[in-house]
Amino acid sequence: MIRLLGDFDMAEEARQDAFAAAIEQWPSQGAPANACAWLISAGRNKAIDRIRRDKLFRTKIADELAAGDGGVAEAIDEGHAEVFGDDRLRLIFTCCHPALNEEARIALTLREVCGLSTLAVARAFLTSEETMAQRLVRAKKKIRDAGIPYETPDPSVLEDRIEVVLAVVYGVFTEGYAATAGVQLIDVELCTEAIRLGRLLDVLLPDHAGVMGLLALMLLHDARRASRVSEAGDVVLLDDQDRSQWDRNEISEGLTLVDRSLSIRGHVSAYAVQGAIAALHAKAENSAGTDWPQIVGLYEVLLRLQPTPVIELNHAVAVSMVDGAARALDLVDSLAARGRVTQYHLLHAARGRFLQQLGRLGEAREAYSTALRTATLEPEKRFLAARIAGLQGVCTPPVSG
Amino acid sequence: MNYLLLIYNNEAETMALGETALKKMMGEYTDFTKSIVQAGSFKAADRLRPVSSASTVRVRNGKTAITDGPFAETREQLGGYYLVEAKNLDEATAIAARIPGAKYGCIEVRPIWPPEAY
Fold it and tell me: How far apart are the C-alpha atoms of A218 and A211, rounded to whole Å?
């Protein structure tokens, strides 16, 4: 309907009108055979009425619509379900347009594609319903005023635009996996929505390396969800997680998708490489049985695709499992020396762990303390505090009487 | 829809270009302008003289104050514009990306507010 009317708000009003008409007519006249097409066609007719009433809109649009080629409604009448899918895809590309700011993309996608309430979207962003409603209105106004199209992008930019969509979906997932600040470590609803979006994209853009890679990555992480936090809400490290709690269905689906994604020639998706790393963890019986050398190699591939401090840090952790803590500490210190990540708590936490493994306990405690000062999530703070307390036990021998 | 494509570049860097480089850039602009005229997107375009020639006018309490220089001192300065007609933002940004100056500075894409939509 947005495509038919070229206007988000107008389409929303038309949809409400159509539902109102349905509530009026269906009980007396019975529901039509194709309810969806009926609603779209009713919505279009109601919109034409509205446009005719509204002198601000040029009569041309109303005429075009009245003369219209039938568009979506006709296509659905004829049973072309895929046209409906295309509309869904257009909506995704509009909501994830790079001319919108990142937060607006995520909020619009959750609201318009996933159908979450404004209140639920507001909660995801830790803001009030009123503030979120204003942001959504502003984003829709930009779509209308700037002429952001409700179309599948031109083939020349399609890949770039798919990347933006994938980043939005991954943003929803990571936001859900570790809420940026606050008490709860995992927001299940956002993870579920992100995976749902991933599955939808996999249907709409079949056999796309990036889409399959991202879906695999999300499934493989999500499979570990139950074991990642203890019943008391504390962080459980990968080493200590109860692997019997991992979701085997999600893992096997993820493994298949990783293989399919990486088998597509000429397009190595960074998501698929991350998925492959998660797959190696998922396949292993325990930490000792994990193929760490291959994980190190995959992180090196990933560093070429995405040279970010976070990936460098993860690479260092994998290196510590192969070459030992001393080599890993060198890598982390070199990362810290380049300055970009001194406020990043996980860097200090990793340093603390390497130093502890090397028996440099005083320095380890210092590193954990720095990590604790920069951490924002309560469960992570508790975890770091426990590490420090553990070290204290080692450093101060019990006084014997 | 009509869009104004505002070309921002570092003026000092442009001025420092050698004669050959400047000529090459001018040639690129001529080719680009021709191509959008042919495509039917072109409405208007101009190159602006440097900000050293700019003056700023303000009227306060009926008094006109004229000052030397641009409205704002920024690292990149408005150096010219194209007014184009495009189907939507994607088409407008695709045109903007082909402006030679986009490779050095940046292009701000602003939709024109049509009077009937005020």
Answer: 11
- Is B90 close to A56, i.e. CB distance below 8 A? no
Domain chopping of chain A, boundaries: 1-79, 291-395
For residue B89, give the nearest of A58, A148, A156 by CB distance.
A148
Instruction: Give yes or no for a contact between A21 and A58, defined as CB atoms under 8 angstroms apart.
Output: no
- CA-to-CA distance for A306 and A294, rounded, in angstroms? 18
Nearest to residue A110, comparing CAs of A135, A142, A81? A135
Q: pTM for the complete prediction?
A: 0.75
Answer yes or no: are the C-beta atoms of A254 and A278 closer than 8 Å. Answer: yes
Mutation target for A interface from B89, B98, B108: give the one with most A CBs within 10 A: B89
Q: At A16, list the tokens.
A: 């409400």
- Tens digits of per-residue pLDDT, A308-353? 888 999 999 999 999 999 999 999 999 888 876 666 888 999 999 9
Domains of chain B: 2-117 (3.30.70.1060)
CATH number of A291-395: 1.25.40.10
Question: So what's the ipTM on this one?
Answer: 0.88
Residues from chain B that touch A149, judged by Cβ atoms under 8 A, are 87-90
DSSP string, chain B: -EEEEEEEE-HHHHHHS-HHHHHHHHHHHHHHHHHHHHHT-EEEEEEPPPGGG-EEEEEETTEEEEEES-SS--SSEEEEEEEEE-SSHHHHHHHHHHSGGGGTSEEEEEE---GGG-
For residue A150, give the chain B residue with the closest CA: B88
